[in-house]
Design a protein that fits this description.
Blueprint: H1 2-25, H2 38-42, H3 53-58, E1 67-71, H4 79-86, E2 91-96, H5 99-111, E3 117-121, E4 134-140, H6 149-159, E5 160-171, H7 180-190, E6 193-199, E7 203-209
Parallel strand pairs: 1-2, 1-4, 2-3, 4-5
Antiparallel strand pairs: 5-7, 6-7
Helix pairs in contact: 6-7
The structure holds S-adenosylmethionine (SAM).
Length: 214
C-alpha cells in the first residue's frame, strides 16, 4: 500500500516537473502543445466551464459578417463555432504554427462545409497579419506558448480595426497558464485596455479593447 502511494506521488511529481519545465522552456524556445496531444484540446475542456468553446464564443458578441482572427487555433475547437456565427459573409483567419494542427482544423471545417475560414501556417509576431481588418482576435490558451509575447500582442493590436476586441482565455490546467496580471501588463504595453473579465483565477476570459468603450 505504501509503495503504491509513493509510486502515485512520484508520478504526480514527474508530471508537475514536466509541466514546469515545459512552461519555463517556452520563455526561450518555441515549445507548442504537441500535435499528438490535440485530442486533449478537442475534449473542449471538461475541467472548467470558462474555457469551453460555447462560453468563449458567447462572450465575443459576434455579428454576421465579422472578421475574426483565431490565433493558435489548434485543431479548430473554437474556430468552427466562430465561423458558424459570423456566417458566409464573415471570415475567420485560423492561424497556427503547426501544420498537423491546421490539417485537423481543416478536415473538421470541410466536414461541416464551412467555406469562410482561411488557414494560415505561421507564428504570431512574424508580421504576417493584415493591418486593421479584424473585428475580433482570440488567444485561447496560446499566449504562454509564445516566446515573444510583446511582439505578438503588438501585431494583434495592429491587426484589429479601431475598437476591435482581443479575447484572451487562460486556464490553470494549461502548463502555460498566464495570470490575469501578466495579461493586463503585456496587453497594456501593446495599447489594449481592459474591457471585461469573465470567470475566476482558475480559468478566465479577458476582453481587451483597442479603445476604452465602456
Ligand atoms: C493549447 S493549444 C490551444 C488551441 C486552441 N486555441 C484551443 O483552445 O482549442 C495552443 C496552440 O497554439 C499554437 N501556437 C503556439 N505558439 C504559436 C505561435 N507563436 N503562433 C501561432 N500559433 C502558436 C500551437 O501550435 C497550438 O496549436
Amino acid at each position: 500500500m505504501t509503495t503504491l502511494l509513493y509510486l502515485c506521488l512520484g508520478l504526480i511529481g514527474i508530471i508537475l516537473l514536466g509541466m514546469f519545465a515545459w512552461r519555463f522552456g517556452s520563455r526561450w524556445y518555441t515549445l507548442p502543445c504537441p500535435v499528438w496531444l490535440r485530442w486533449l484540446v478537442e475534449l473542449d475542456n471538461p475541467f472548467t466551464k470558462t474555457n469551453r468553446s460555447e462560453v468563449i464564443v458567447r462572450h465575443l458578441d459576434l455579428q454576421p459578417g465579422m472578421a475574426v482572427l483565431d490565433i493558435g487555433c489548434g485543431p479548430g475547437r473554437v474556430t468552427l463555432p466562430v465561423a458558424r456565427q459570423v456566417g458566409p459573409h464573415g471570415k475567420v483567419v485560423a492561424m497556427d504554427l503547426q501544420p498537423g494542427m491546421l490539417r485537423r482544423a481543416q478536415e473538421r471545417a470541410q466536414a461541416e462545409n464551412l467555406g469562410n475560414i482561411r488557414f494560415v501556417q505561421t507564428g504570431v509576431g512574424d508580421g504576417k497579419l493584415d493591418v486593421g481588418l479584424a473585428d475580433r482576435a482570440l488567444l485561447v490558451t496560446v499566449l504562454g506558448e509564445i516566446p515573444d509575447r510583446e511582439a505578438a500582442l503588438r501585431e494583434i493590436f495592429e491587426a484589429l480595426k479601431p475598437g476591435g476586441v482581443l479575447s484572451v482565455t487562460e486556464t490553470i490546467f494549461d502548463p502555460h497558464y498566464q495570470r490575469r496580471e501578466t495579461v493586463i501588463r503585456l496587453a497594456g504595453a501593446a495599447g489594449f485596455r481592459e474591457k471585461a473579465f469573465f470567470g475566476s483565477r482558475v480559468a478566465y476570459t479577458l476582453k481587451r479593447s483597442e479603445f476604452q468603450l465602456d
